Predict the structure.
Amino acid sequence: MSTDLHTGFDEQQYPHINKGLDGIVAFSTTKSFIDGAIGELIYAGYSIDTLAENATFEEVCFLLWNDRLPNSEELAALQAELIKERNLPEVVLNYLTSTDKEAEPMAVLQSAVSMLADFDPTKGKFDSELFMSQAISITAKIPSIIASFDRYRHGKEVIAPLDSGSTAFNFLYMLNGEEPGTQAEKTMDLCLILHAEHGMNASTFTARTVCATMSDIYSSATAAIGALKGPLHGGANTAVMKTLLELEKEGKDADAVAFTKKKLANKEKIMGFGHRVYKTFDPRGRHLQKMAKALSEETGHEELYRWSMDMLNTMKSEKNIDPNVDFFSATVYYSIGIQPDLYTCIFTMSRISGWTGHFMEQAANNRLIRPRALYVGEKNLPWVSVDER
């Protein structure tokens, strides 16, 4: 502890600052629980393993919005509502098919989601009786936004959403122009389940902060997308794939161990490793690892999985760091033909269920989020006229 002679700031006079709010408990929640020491993740009472093995994304949406699983009638009703809400307003579709084809997909998605507020008949009214229908509408439309822009930017005809099928099935159909097979749909659905919710991360905190001002759910979602867009949050899986593609340039026999050690020696960050919460293997990553292995073999990308495992083992031996959810999700998405710059958009397509669940939870017991900042600058400086500065 010391006093800065320039500013007069005495560290002993002030409480400890938790940089990045590390360790600060800001809310209570029923949405998810994480035990980073043992690698446990729970959504509203159910372990991620149980949900990954048994649930559909639509069931997970209901769970995060209602804190319980739906019965058959409730699930059918939610599926019907999601299907009904898939179509985009004409103005939004016109934007997606006229904007710059080189635009960053997450930036386009953020703009399109913000536009949805214009077509809410309630004009985004802050009313608990409207939140569920608004959450369903946004969740249903995000896949349509992503697929429509991707087809437009590649010079392909934009495809209207189906009036049947799961969220995963419809998205892959709109994206690729053909109905996906059972395995592809199952893979996409599992990815959506695994990314749906994850505690008080940067984007979820952002969503709740906006909600706390009593702004509308569209503003909350738009702000959360902005937070997720950053490479230290949702953009990490795209960075992982860029790393694997660097190796691909060296040929299928590329040495991933030497490649990783060289990056570490150069003090370069290896994306997809380490986590602020988990001190062991990310439980979501284990499901994606199995999927990545199967898909890489099925699609002829065995080297991607081999390189991934070599990198994983090298990082463990050299730094004792385990992979996070982004590491194997990159290989999974690439193996089913999704462009790397869409990975974070797909993350959004899933995480919107958690964000909107937190929005409703925050609104139900709201208090404006207003932390303090510790001022460490100078005080009461003398005024100096402009010609003397």
Observations:
- The chain has two domains: 32-230+346-364, 236-335.
